Amino acid sequence: MIHIESAGTIFRKLMGCFWVTYLAKALLLVGALFLFAKMAPSLPPLAVGLFWALLSAAASLGFAYQVVVRKTYKQCALEEGGRLFRLNNGRAFWLIAGFIVSAICAMGIIFEAPKWDGAEWLMVLFSVPLYAGVFAVTKKALKGEMKRPFLTARLIAWSCGAVGVLLCALFAVLVFMQPAATFESADAAFLAAEQPFSQSPSVLLSEAGKLTALIDGLTTYGVAKTAEVSFPGYVIARLIIAASALFGVAGLLGFCSLKGSELKRVFLPLENLGEKDVHRSIVRRYVVLAAALPLCLTALFAAADFKAAEVSQMGEFTMAEKVVRDQVGIAAYLIDGKYYDQLAVEELVGEMKGRSEELFGKLESEVVPLVNASFDARLTNVDSYLDWYYSLPADYERLGNLITGSVESYASEQFKAKIEEGIDDSQISGKLEELSGQAEALKTEFETRLADCELSDAPTWLLTAQEMSPTDLFSGPLGPTEKLLEAPERFGVSAAAGMAGGILSKKLVEKVLKKEFFGKIVGRMSSALATRAAGGAAGAAAGSVVPGIGTIAGLAAGTAIGVGADYGMLKLDEAQNRETYKQEIIDAIEEQRAEVLASLQDDK
Q: Which domain of life is it from (predicted)?
């Protein structure tokens, strides 16, 4: 008959197997650590303190076990009943000291575990079977080499050390496969450091997280600088920093490999080698002490967190924030309610100012020569205008047009047509449009790059802010550029107009209209009409009194007289006033040139 064992029997047998027990405890430990790492930033202070206490207790018992085994070895050399014998048999001091050291190491793991990525968690998980393999190899190597009371302790110590070294080697491989981080400053490294506890309900944990981030940031910055000099040195530096956590994981696995009978030795009197079947009772005060230490740590953490919460409400900054500000405080500009890195903004402003001035220099080097050439051409046309003006056909053309039009408007149109003859200012408008487009692109780039300087991820308590208005920010570096953007408008250039000549000639005519000589020209043209009318009437009268000539002949004679009189008056006016008119036209052109150049070469 086949005997089928119950599930409970099978379970007890499995749990009696050393490796099954080890794997169960190790995987439970890794799983608890993983869950805590994911939940720690949102856990209440009491839960964090309790987990810290349990992790510290586990690590301290492993440490205490090694101390007890070492005391057992020393016991052989001491005389029973002596003072040193009694001191050696005690362990309260080592339980307390071991717990304190373990609490410090456990806190390091608590702060580091939430920052581990997938590769690091896989490495921690891989360490579970790795430890089992190393333990088995070490046990085989030490078989028959050591006495039973010392064998397990030596196996655990050597296995933990070997696993720690192997984990460090594996970590070094991971570092070699990743590019080295680079930071421009220590504050940039601090901001890049992960701060999983920044929003933790535990004020104490949040404060400690800020200080940890400061240490991480400064360390990372130093390591990054090392990478610039020597990449192997960078790997070694990263390895030294990670070694404590890696050996801590190995130590916890060592605790998981302890059998209950071996762990019990921490609370038993020291055994004498050679004694057999001697019953030794558990020393209760050690059990009470071992149980009281994690409870005290939990209570102490809760009390400290409560006190930290009270203190944080008393000032503008907490103690941790003051320390961090002193070390890596960031100078910032406050612009329209947003914070910007002051150094980055000043560097950007300096660059934009240089490029803006360079672009403004193109206005002086490329547009000013075109403007000068345009006005020089107008100066050349002055003599042509006066030659035309003092010609008899032009005089009759004016008289013919003035009968139906305004004297002033016709005179200005004549002046504009002759002075602007052969002048094309389209190059000026094209160049202005081109430079204006470049100025607009520079302004857009400035705004885009300014947005990149925003300290959106930096906590406000870390910033030393100086308020600045957008007008002050843009007026400095983009002052010359703003003038370029206004230049086409000042010249009347637009997509519809497409030319600068229209506005130049218009302003020039307006200036000429105010000159004294123009008033004389208009006056002469008006008097010429009266002279012509009087000459015609006189000829007609003469035709009616002189027999045989008639009225028509009299009109012709009057016209001839008028032509002669006009020509004579025209030449007389030219002899008396041409040079004066010429100089006044030249002065008007030069005044207009000066105004245009002043608008282009205004102070930056």
A: Bacteria
125-135 mean pLDDT: 93
52 with 285: CB under 8 angstroms?
no
d(CA 498, CA 62): 88
For the record, the structure tokens of 592 come out as 């207009």
- How many residues are recorded in the chain? 604
In whole angstroms, what is the distance from residue 492 CA to residue 505 CA?
A: 11
pTM, two decimal places: 0.59
Task: Please tell me the predicted confidence (pLDDT) of residue 430.
Answer: 82
* Side-chain-facing half-sphere of 325: CA atoms under 13 Å: 16
Task: Report the C-alpha gap between 396 and 491 in whole angstroms.
Answer: 36
Nearest residue to 156 (alpha-carbon basis) of 279, 80, 270, 68 = 68
Q: Give the burial class of 514: count Cβ atoms within 10 A of its Cβ; 0-12 exposed, 13-18 middle, 19 or more buried.
A: exposed
**What digits encode the pLDDT tens for the residues 386-404?**
888 888 787 777 667 666 6
Written as six digits, the tokens of 520 are 């004389």
Contact between residue 117 and residue 63 where contact means Cβ atoms under 8 Å apart: no
Burial class (CB in 10 A: 0-12, 13-18, 19+), 395: buried
3-state helix, strand, coil in the chain (%, to 5): 80, 5, 20
